[in-house]
Amino acid sequence: MSHEKRGLEFYLLAIFFIIFVLFLYGPLSAILILSFQGPDGGLTFPMNGVSTHWFFNLFEKQAVGDFGASFRRSFTLGLMVMAVTVVVSLLAGLAFRRRFRGSTALFYATVASLVVPSIIISLGIGVAFQEGGLKPAWYSSAFGAHLTWTLPFGVLIMFAVFNRFSPAYEEAARDLGASSWQTFRHVVLPMIAPSLVGVGLFGFTLSYDEFARTLMTSGTYNTLPLEIYGMTTNVTTPVLYALGTVTTLFSFTIILLALGIMTMLSRRQAKIS
């Protein structure tokens, strides 16, 4: 009976996994395939020929949409958010290794934005900028809005990292005459470097494709997610699918690059230890 039960659980889990994969990669696969429509192809199946026409058309001047500029804004904003998220998360992780007055309240204040609807945060920041006489822009108000999304995750990751970090390494370094800065630079930092790369990757990807917290804070110029959303109502060619394919490949490239760096750092640390 137990053997039959395990067999049933296996098939149920297999069916669930297949459905999950279809929901996850089905739409992505459809966009990837349709981006190779022929020059006379439309937005739906069946395909009218196969070509790379729409990928070349992507880099030409469009009647609607500004791919290049919106991509540069999203990429720059992602790098800004990534840098601040890594630095602040690292400092928070170091600070919270010791208890201090108000640490609990500060922690909950940090992660509170995760439970607030993103569109409400976007609206609140946009209104605050306008009431303060400041013009919302992707490099100011949207930058702050994205940090309310990325920083809590980065801080929680660093908390988990330092929770498993043994202070014995630092004590050994200080016993050998290392200063606090030397201990951090030559002992702590190399050991947590892969985790910092992960925090950076997390911050960049969350910012790069963030829509809701950018909607009311980007100002006059759109980021790439807003540009794509605006184009869905007026673009009638597969160039939109070509854009989706290119941005997806770019995201996967960033992820693979980050994983490669993390693997390299982990192997180097393993050799040292």
UniProtKB/TrEMBL annotation:
InterPro entries: Bact_Polyamine_Transport, MetI-like, MetI-like_sf
Transmembrane segments: 12-36, 75-94, 106-129, 149-166, 187-208, 239-265
Keyword Transport found: yes
Any one GO BP annotation for this protein: transmembrane transport
UniProt cross-references to CDD domains, sorted A to Z: TM_PBP2 (cd06261)
Domain of life of the organism encoding this protein: Bacteria
Cell compartments where the protein resides: Cell membrane
GO cellular component terms, semicolon-separated: plasma membrane
Membrane topology classification: Multi-pass membrane protein
Keywords: Cell membrane, Membrane, Transmembrane, Transmembrane helix, Transport
Pfam family, one: BPD_transp_1
UniProt keyword annotation of Cell membrane present: yes
Domain ABC transmembrane type-1: 71-258
SUPFAM superfamilies named among the record's database cross-references: MetI-like
Family assignment from sequence similarity: Belongs to the binding-protein-dependent transport system permease family. CysTW subfamily.
Name of the protein in its database record: Transmembrane component of ABC transporter
Species annotation: Rhizobium johnstonii (strain DSM 114642 / LMG 32736 / 3841)
Taxon lineage: Bacteria, Pseudomonadati, Pseudomonadota, Alphaproteobacteria, Hyphomicrobiales
